[in-house]
User: Which sequence fits this backbone?
C-alpha cells in the first residue's frame, strides 16, 4: 500500500534498497566479512544462454554416491525406524574411510554430527556397536549434543566448523526440529518450513559441502513418498534431495530422489547385531526375486500340481502377483505348467507326467 505523496517508483526503489541491504547483511553474516562493495545491479548476477553454453563447471560432488550430494538432503522416517543409526554409520564411514549401506564408498573427510536427541554416553554405546572391535574411532568426526538454532548463531557455528577443518564433507542435524528457526507469527506454514532450511542451504551450496537433516514422516500414506515427509512442501522444496526410510508390507525401503540424484527405491535391511543398514538392491527387483523364491519353495514341497489360487493361499501373495510371476517362471524354466492351469516344480515334472500316464 502506497503512502500519501508516494508514487510506485519511490516505493519500488525503497523495496529494492531494503532487499539489497538484507542481502548484504546475510552475505556479511555468512562469509564473516563485509560484502557491501559488491555490485547489486541485476546485470551482475545474470548470464546469457549463449555464454552459459560454453561455461565449464565441476561435476556434481557426492558425499555418498547415489544418495547424498552436496547441498541439503532430508532423511525422513517414522520414529524408532533407525534413521539415527543410518546417519551415524554414514558419519563414521566418511570420517574413517569405510563403506556404508552395504558397499557404497563415501567421500572421505570431516563430519559434524549434531545429535540433539542423544547424550555422550548413548553416542559412545552406539559407536561401539557400529565400529569393529579393532576399529580406530575417527578424529575427523566431531559430535555435539546441543547446537544453537540456525537463526540464532547455529548457521554461523556451522561456518566456523567448516573453516576449522581441512576437509569439510557433511553436517548432520539430528533432528531438524532441534535447530530450525522459531516460526514467526507472520509466516505461513510453507514460508516457515522453507525458512527453516534456506540459510543453511545457501551456506552448503556456496561452500560445497553436504547437510543431512533428519525429520519424521506423517502417519498418512501418500502416492509420492516425498509427500509423506512431515511439514509442508516448503521443507521438501528447499532441500536438494529427499530420502525416505519406510517399512512396507514387502519389506523396508530407502527411497531417494533429488535435483542431482536419480529416483530409486532401494530394498534395505538392518542388521540387529552390527546395527548397520545395507542395500539389498532395487526394491522392485528384490520383491520379484523374493516372490519367485517363495513360489519355488511351495512348488518343491507340493505333492500335487497346484493352481495359481492354491499357490496364492500357500504363499500369502496376491493372486495377480502370482499370475505374473508364474508366467515369467514358466518362460525361465523355474516352473512347469501342466494340465488345465496347474503348475509343478521342474524337478517334479517327469514324476507328475509318469503318474498322469499311469492314471
Assistant:
Amino acid at each position: 500500500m502506497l503512502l500519501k505523496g508516494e508514487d510506485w517508483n519511490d516505493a519500488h526503489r525503497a523495496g529494492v534498497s531494503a532487499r539489497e541491504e538484507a542481502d548484504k547483511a546475510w552475505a556479511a553474516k555468512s562469509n564473516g566479512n563485509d560484502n557491501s562493495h559488491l555490485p547489486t545491479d541485476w546485470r551482475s548476477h545474470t548470464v546469457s544462454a549463449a555464454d552459459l553454453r560454453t561455461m565449464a563447471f565441476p561435476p556434481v560432488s557426492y558425499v555418498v554416491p547415489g544418495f547424498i550430494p552436496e547441498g541439503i538432503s532430508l532423511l525422513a522416517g517414522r520414529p524408532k525406524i533407525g534413521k539415527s543409526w543410518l546417519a551415524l554409520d554414514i558419519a563414521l564411514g566418511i570420517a574413517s574411510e569405510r563403506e556404508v549401506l552395504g558397499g557404497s564408498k563415501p567421500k572421505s573427510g570431516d563430519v559434524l554430527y549434531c545429535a540433539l536427541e542423544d547424550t555422550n554416553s548413548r553416542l559412545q554405546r552406539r559407536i561401539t556397536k557400529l565400529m569393529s572391535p579393532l576399529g580406530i574411532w575417527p578424529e575427523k568426526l566431531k559430535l555435539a549434543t546441543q547446537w544453537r538454532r540456525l537463526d540464532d548463531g547455529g548457521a554461523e557455528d556451522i561456518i566456523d566448523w567448516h573453516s576449522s577443518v581441512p576437509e569439510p564433507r557433511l553436517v548432520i542435524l539430528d533432528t531438524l526440529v532441534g535447530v530450525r528457526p522459531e516460526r514467526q507469527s507472520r509466516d505461513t506454514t510453507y514460508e516457515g518450513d522453507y525458512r527453516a532450511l534456506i540459510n543453511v542451504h545457501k551456506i552448503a551450496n556456496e561452500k560445497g559441502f553436504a547437510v543431512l537433516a533428519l525429520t519424521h514422516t506423517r502417519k498418512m500414506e501418500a502416492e509420492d513418498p516425498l509427500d509423506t515427509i512431515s511439514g509442508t512442501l516448503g521443507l521438501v522444496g528447499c532441500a536438494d534431495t529427499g530420502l525416505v526410510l519406510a517399512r512396507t508390507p514387502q519389506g523396508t525401503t530407502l527411497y531417494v530422489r533429488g535435483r542431482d540424484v536419480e529416483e530409486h527405491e532401494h530394498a534395505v535391511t538392518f542388521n540387529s547385531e552390527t546395527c548397520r543398514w545395507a542395500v539389498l538392491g532395487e526394491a522392485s527387483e528384490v520383491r520379484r526375486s523374493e516372490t519367485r523364491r517363495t513360489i519355488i519353495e511351495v512348488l518343491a514341497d507340493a505333492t500335487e500340481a497346484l493352481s495359481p489360487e492354491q499357490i496364492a493361499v500357500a504363499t500369502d501373495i496376491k493372486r495377480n502377483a502370482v499370475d505374473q510371476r508364474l508366467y515369467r517362471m514358466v518362460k525361465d524354466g523355474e516352473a512347469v505348467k501342466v494340465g488345465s492351469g496347474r503348475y509343478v516344480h521342474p524337478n517334479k515334472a517327469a514324476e507328475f507326467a509318469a503318474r498322469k500316464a499311469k492314471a
In short: The domain at 62-262 is CATH 3.40.50.300 (Rossmann fold). Residues 1-34 have pLDDT under 50 and may be disordered. The radius of gyration is 27 Å.
